[in-house]
Amino acid sequence: MERITISELNEALVKATKSSREKAKKNGVAIVYEENEKMIKEYPDGRKTQIIYENGEQKEIEYK
């Protein structure tokens, strides 16, 4: 098995992430990721919400 560099690994991860995002959007599936230490849910139409927990319940609020 051939070794790859950190740079090559990072490039592969960026491509995989981009591909996964595109496939999710194409199939009408929201994606969830962390941004600015907040959990963000992004819908295929581009709308974003922040996932928060209040009293043990998951809620979504508008994210700007």
What does this entry look like structurally?
The structure is a single chain. With 64 residues, this protein is α+β, with helices and mostly antiparallel strands. It has one helix at residues 6-26, and strands at 31-35, 38-42, 48-54, 57-62. The protein has a four-stranded antiparallel sheet.
How many H/I helices? 1
One letter per element, helices H and strands E, the order comes to HEEEE
Strand content: 35-45%
Largest sheet: 4 strands, antiparallel
Query: What integer is the average pLDDT?
Result: 95
Q: Could you tell me how far the N terminus lies from the C terminus, measured between alpha carbons in angstroms?
A: 45 Å
Number of strands: 4
Low-pLDDT regions: none
Strands of the widest sheet, in order across it, are 1-2-3-4
Helix content: 25-40%
Q: Give me the Rg, rounded.
A: 16 Å
Structural class: alpha+beta
Question: What gross morphology would you assign?
Answer: elongated
